[in-house]
Automatic annotation (TrEMBL):
InterPro entries referenced in this protein's UniProt entry, alphabetically: CheY-like_superfamily, Sig_transdc_resp-reg_receiver, TCS_response_regulator
Organism whose genome encodes this protein: Maribacter luteus
4-aspartylphosphate: residues bearing it: D63
Keywords: Phosphoprotein
Domain Response regulatory, chain residue ranges per copy: 5-130
SMART domains to which the protein is assigned, alphabetical: REC
Protein name: Response regulator
Keyword GTP-binding: no
């Protein structure tokens, strides 16, 4: 199912570039892509959208290891925002630590923990099931 807006929160420009190419492929997945390089920037901007009742991303791909505010810190603050509709959050990380996978399951807003890199087939599966 095609989404209007997808958000990528990640400080790795190569990962962001590759993910944008996958998301834009034939425009199958989304119409718009919003990118933030750290959790604080994302929280500030997404929080403003939500509080002012502007449209906000329906899907968020969140990295864990970032400068300024990491993915866990972002999630802890993001879940406090007044959503009308919860976005779907996928943690996308190079970490394969079991503690990170288990911690991700403790957040209701997190749909899944995905090991980098994303693939076209994986995105197809995610968007068909969201």
């Amino acid at each position: 199912m095609k989404k209007d807006t997808v958000c990528i929160i990640d400080d790795d420009p190569i990962y962001v570039y590759g993910t944008k190419i996958l998301l834009n492929y034939n425009s199958n997945f989304c119409s718009n892509i919003v990118v933030y390089e750290d959790g604080q920037e994302a929280l500030d901007n997404l929080g403003s959208m939500i509080k002012s009742e502007e449209p906000y991303p329906e899907v968020i791909f969140l990295d864990l290891n970032m400068p300024i505010m990491n993915g866990w810190e972002f999630l802890d603050e993001f879940i406090k925002l007044p959503f009308t509709i919860k976005p779907v959050v996928y943690i996308v990380s190079s970490s394969i630590a079991e503690r990170d996978i288990e911690k991700a399951k403790s957040y209701d807003i997190v749909k899944d923990f995905i090991s980098k890199p994303l693939s076209f087939a994986l995105l197809e599966d995610l968007f068909q099931n969201s």
